[in-house]
């Protein structure tokens, strides 16, 4: 039995060098019966325009403004931002006890944006043609570039029609992400993502940067550059590939159909992508989201996030970063059966049953050109 | 404005010294409207005995055995264990490429148990009288003690009626946990928990032990001993308290109503508890689970886990450990509205809206003596 086949059969841990953490894989366990909660598949038959949607062109938002008649993407400041530009400062109080050790806090300022991906209420990234995904990538890029320090070679004044109001302060990190589907707590099917930019680097990117920095110091090469090259030669975990980007189920994936999209060139942030690479990224996003929908023939829920260099701070941090996207989908074995991260996984260690190689094989064999969505709840009254 | 009040108003990060990680708190954001998915509240009107339940006394389980007519608790080996006692060994293959660096794996062996908390199908920890929670604590203790190395002063042969078959191998860590409710992926309402014991220390306890060990080296005292003492003087985050245990919303809580139960004495593992301390723990578990049910007048879902010393390994690890329980409940603002850990939280940093102090105040003010469950779906045909 080859080593690959041994890992198809035995319980084992896999190491995630990007986080410096382990996950438990139990491949023999996939035969377990399912008796738990079921998800409601997402509704279909959405209109192109919904007069009650706060993201559709021309509609009034809850707090204030009216959306313009935007033709491609549209950016606005989140009406319910998790971080704010102006707030009182916080200074940890002096204390005679151990509060300064055990009750530490630090103020966080920042700005939150919403990006509409398309004026059409009823499209998802899987439906939007590749040439209309490029403007979304260009909007992400413009947002990032306009928040860089003015001294950066990649700094750019955003085009007026984007409606981006650049903050007066220099923030440190920009997290671009998308929540799709009710299973991911997303309240509106209108295709959109979010961008939160903050003082300080958040926990996850901070952990990844630390590990990428140490890898570079030790091995003189980029962790994700080495990794994407290795996976392309191994083939087993590749989901989609073109000259510029690879989509794969990472060796250390936690979620059943988790994928990463990694730039094949060692690029630190979005503004460094060439026009051709932007198209390459749009193509891979289109293929991955179509494959996801086809997997269970449903409108596939996920959280997606882009990791790239911090806006500001240590230049060694920036150089250690390698542009990549994470897709984290909750579904496990059908449009209605999800994986739960509970119990052992919360208290001890993340755990998965099917191996990343099995997941990659299933995704690889699905169409990335067309979308099939049989398992939708048809809901004409919605 | 005092510092405490500042943190009620501004976005800030709080440090978790137990994990060495940060979380984002956005207290101003609690006014956000909710349009997302709703949970189905759990069903009521369960029978005391369900002939189709594989955990009820006298019933046949899917794979093989018949449950005995147990009077208190009952332990059996999980029919669908995530780890097994016997499996092929795995040796990382030699390779000329970077596989040994980027595709690391290690075999994991172990044993998984299920513990029925009560013969009654329709009770939860909130319903079980305190004096019947004590036998559950004694069963957890017996399981742990019987898996210690025979040289340990706390080693115990398990009582025959528990039905515990001790593995031939010495495992390193034992994770005791409970998943309660469909929202936590739990398929069976019969009150029960699980125990997974493995070679190697899993990710979460390993991280905590590392931080507790470093704290002890630096400050000459136990991290959780210092923390529980400090919280008792601060009062604000305490939910329930007796001479032996404190229940509190930790300073660094991620989930809206997350709590920890911490032993007030620096005890490393369950077998070190005195009879009186066992009763103290049973009382606090009873109060916390009753308060949880009363919060939204529902059968409150959660994951619970016990962290204590490893079974085997470095004695300094054992000495750094301090017995505690984590309760992680998903509900946010009613029996049907849950918190999702998605988007920014998966990609960047966990985030919460209501502060741990606000959560503790709400839990403190609820009854811990009686249970009210108005918001149940009455489901006579179930
Ligand atoms: Zn990343
Ligand atoms: Zn813990």
Structure commentary:
With 382 residues, chain A is of the alpha+beta class. Chain A has one domain (42-86, 108-365): HIT family, subunit A (2-Layer Sandwich). Helices cover 25% and strands 17% of the residues of chain A. Chain A contains 9 helices and 13 strands. In chain A, the strands form 2 sheets. A 9-stranded antiparallel beta sheet of chain A has the order 3-5-7-6-11-12-10-9-8, sandwiched between helices. In chain A, strands 1-2-13 form a 3-stranded mixed beta sheet, with no helix packed on it. In chain A, a hairpin with a 4-residue loop joins strand 1 and strand 2. In chain A, helix 3 packs across helix 6. The radius of gyration of chain A is 21 Å and the shape is globular. Residues 378-382 of chain A have low confidence and may be disordered. At the A-B interface, helix 1, strand 1, strand 2, helix 2 and strand 4 of A face helix 1, strand 1, strand 2, helix 2 and strand 4 of B. Strand 1 (12-16) of chain A pairs antiparallel with strand 4 (105-107) of chain B. One zinc ion is lined by residues 208, 307, 324, 326 of chain A. Residues 208, 307, 324, 326 of chain A line the site of one zinc ion.
């Amino acid at each position: 039995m080859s080593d690959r086949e041994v890992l198809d059969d035995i319980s084992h841990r896999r190491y995630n060098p990007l986080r410096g953490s382990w996950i438990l894989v139990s491949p023999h366990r996939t035969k377990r019966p399912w008796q738990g909660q079921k998800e409601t598949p997402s509704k279909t038959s959405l209109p192109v325009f919904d007069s009650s949607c706060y993201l559709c062109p021309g509609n009034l938002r809850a707090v204030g403004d009216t959306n313009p008649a935007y033709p491609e993407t549209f950016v606005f400041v989140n009406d319910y931002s998790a971080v704010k530009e102006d707030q009182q400062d916080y200074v940890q109080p002096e204390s005679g006890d151990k509060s300064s050790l055990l009750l530490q806090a630090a103020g966080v300022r920042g700005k939150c944006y919403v990006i509409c991906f398309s004026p059409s209420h009823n499209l998802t990234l899987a439906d939007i043609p590749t040439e209309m995904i490029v403007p979304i990538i260009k909007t992400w890029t413009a947002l990032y570039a306009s928040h860089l320090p003015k001294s950066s070679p990649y700094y750019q004044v955003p085009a007026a029609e984007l409606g981006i109001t650049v903050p007066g302060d220099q923030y440190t990190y920009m997290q671009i992400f998308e929540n799709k589907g009710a299973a991911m707590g997303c309240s509106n099917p209108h295709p959109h993502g979010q961008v939160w930019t903050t003082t300080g680097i958040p926990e996850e990117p901070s952990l990844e940067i630390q590990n990428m920095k140490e890898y570079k110091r030790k091995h003189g090469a980029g962790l994700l550059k080495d990794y994407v090259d290795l996976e392309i030669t191994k083939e087993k975990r590749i989901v989609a590939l073109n000259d510029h980007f690879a989509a794969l189920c990472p060796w250390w994936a936690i979620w059943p159909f988790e994928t990463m999209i990694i730039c094949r060139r060692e690029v630190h942030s979005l503004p460094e992508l060439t026009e051709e690479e932007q198209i390459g990224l749009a193509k891979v996003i289109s293929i991955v989201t179509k494959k996801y929908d086809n997997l269970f023939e449903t409108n596939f829920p996920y959280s997606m996030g882009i990791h790239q260099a911090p806006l500001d701070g240590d230049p060694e941090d920036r150089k250690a970063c390698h542009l990549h996207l994470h897709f984290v989908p909750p579904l496990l074995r059908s449009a209605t059966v999800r994986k739960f991260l509970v119990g052992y996984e919360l208290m001890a260690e993340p755990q998965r049953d099917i191996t990343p190689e099995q997941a990659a094989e299933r995704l690889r064999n699905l169409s990335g050109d067309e979308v099939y969505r049989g398992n939708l709840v048809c809901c004409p009254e919605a």
